[in-house]
Amino acid sequence: MSNSLAVDDVYKTLKEHLPEDKFKELEGVLYGYNCGSPVQSISIPQKLLLLAQSEDFDIQAYRFTAAKEQLREPRIVRLGLIQNSIHAKTTDPVATQYAAIERRIETLIDAAAEMGVNVVCLQEAWSVYYVLFRTCSHPPTAMPFAFCTREKQPWLEFAMDAETGLATRFCQRMAKKHNMVIVSPILERDATHGDVIWNTAVIIGNQGNYIGKTRKNHIPRVGDFNESTYYMEGDTGHRVFETAFGKIAVNICYGRHHPLNWMAYGLNGAEIVFNPSATVGALSEPLWAIEGRNASIANSYFVGCINRVGTESFPNEFTSADGKPAHKDFGHFYGSSYFGGPDASRTPGLSRTKEGLMVAEVDLNLNRQVRDKWGYQMTARYPMYADFLREYKEPDYQPQLIRDPGLGK
Amino acid sequence: MSNSLAVDDVYKTLKEHLPEDKFKELEGVLYGYNCGSPVQSISIPQKLLLLAQSEDFDIQAYRFTAAKEQLREPRIVRLGLIQNSIHAKTTDPVATQYAAIERRIETLIDAAAEMGVNVVCLQEAWSVYYVLFRTCSHPPTAMPFAFCTREKQPWLEFAMDAETGLATRFCQRMAKKHNMVIVSPILERDATHGDVIWNTAVIIGNQGNYIGKTRKNHIPRVGDFNESTYYMEGDTGHRVFETAFGKIAVNICYGRHHPLNWMAYGLNGAEIVFNPSATVGALSEPLWAIEGRNASIANSYFVGCINRVGTESFPNEFTSADGKPAHKDFGHFYGSSYFGGPDASRTPGLSRTKEGLMVAEVDLNLNRQVRDKWGYQMTARYPMYADFLREYKEPDYQPQLIRDPGLGK
User: What integer pLDDT is reported at residue B144 of this predicted model?
Assistant: First the structure.
């Protein structure tokens, strides 16, 4: 896959080319029926549309609705996803670059605030990998994702303390300014535990306070992505954070391939689970719209999936572990950030090539309504699976296998 | 949703209306890249195409490929899915109707044999619900799915012994005739355990021998579908059947909403998991293409999902438990049977309105190749989740919840 994509926006492409009646029907099937019809567009102020045009980012906003209840008021919150990129030359001094990326994120968070967003999630390790060369036909593009290089320097210099690091302090200022919960995924340096590195998300409360952190539970060892060169499996379990705008959790990147991980956040009470990711087209694009949505369905909660955009190149050659010659290109991050609802409805995705802000207004009451309707939690038979996994984890586990006697010995 | 669907075949509709370059790209994204490109069509003999036309059923065939290995020969098998309907008047005597449905299934299994199919799976409770009224604009349509009625008579008369019942004996003849493994989902009467009923799949070996049975693990209590009126949660665990053509398991219908159920079949060694289902459009169509595929991805095995077709009506009114007046219509079964591969590739779906035979040629070696590449099993941290579920299943479980101190008491 290259920068010259034939399709920048899947939803718009379908809408543009299909006859209206066929589009209408397929929209329902492919994007889900939220209370009878697909999620509805929310109008975006002209001022923001102009800003998005001049600043070259995609902006989209949708509403998920729920039934009215007698005893609970609707619990309406607006959620935001930001997919972004660098905005200074990669050869500039680090301080200059950090200031530039802060400015860009500030613009996007300010735009989210204009849309009334209450909880925003930034992309995986948003503030960290901003000092690499890049080869790209249309700036701005994504920040390079350095884990393919296996190099420890200079990348690990950009890890920071979760509670006191630059990115956290910046997000605290923004959170306070906008009365907004901010989820800030960073590379964490854990000075109190042997200086080890973690892939961590920091949760900042709407008053600008540090609520806590949660670490990436599942670490890929896939081709370019052996991230365990840098950090290991998280030790924070499946924390859920109760904020002023709902109970949120963060399933970072590769954890989205693990249904048990999604499940545990749900069983701890998460109403919204964010999945900040960095993943490229040839590897995972067919999985992208499946896994997040399946999680939202199976666990009856809202999911917000974020992926970066752009094609990146590194200064030193590296192997992809796929039999090809060493090379400097990593692949195309295809953006496509989206929200999925518990009722299998979803928003369209953001652009596959541009930065963007995705906004969803949700009524958190929908989660319990769907649980009552589908009953997955009631019919899940957790004790059976607790027993199953207890037995399965033993090295001498005997699978429940019935062999056709006709096969002989 | 009514019988007059604007889209009978999603894949063909996209192919027909999208510009070629956009279709090509979206095909890769939506249907997956199997070893670099979407699954390939297999040519169907002219004789079969004519039969499908004259007998009015859809027939499609595709190939999933895998990399060549040095020490393992390719393990090529052909799999089949049949979505079918009744073929006698619902007011005919039961014996007449059973003979008619047998003839129809025989035609479809014979067609599968012509395509070289080694393992075929029939739809949920295929031989049972064939004695109801139906209102349908274009016969043949699906067999009615009687669980919405809550009536015990006459439906429970059609339950049969798994090992000796009519459907099993028929499948044994067909299996022997074609050297074919047949998965036969039936309604089972368990005379040795208090005459209780189960929703069961019987596995017939390619020599016509009875290998065993496996029961539906998760039972819906969703609107019309409170099937626990008739049978309860299965007690056969997560059996996997080693046949001449691979290790297979059967996740019946509602079990597809449960990731742990899919997982357990995979951990017991399943290479192919069938999901015979009966589900209607307004309820579940947006979930259909998500859940089976997610299972194939998360568990690195092949999945074959089957759904019946047609719109049905029952003689006595029943409530849908959705606040609407009692009524006789159940909804539209949308067919769309398909195969998903471990690498996120999938076949198109069969027709949303017609009976059909879906054939997939797979190289079972692909499963382990994908496991080696993605490493989900290695990175799954099963012991952590065994502990998690052990704690979670206790009534006094305390979720791992961190409350924003700024929220006050």
Answer: 54
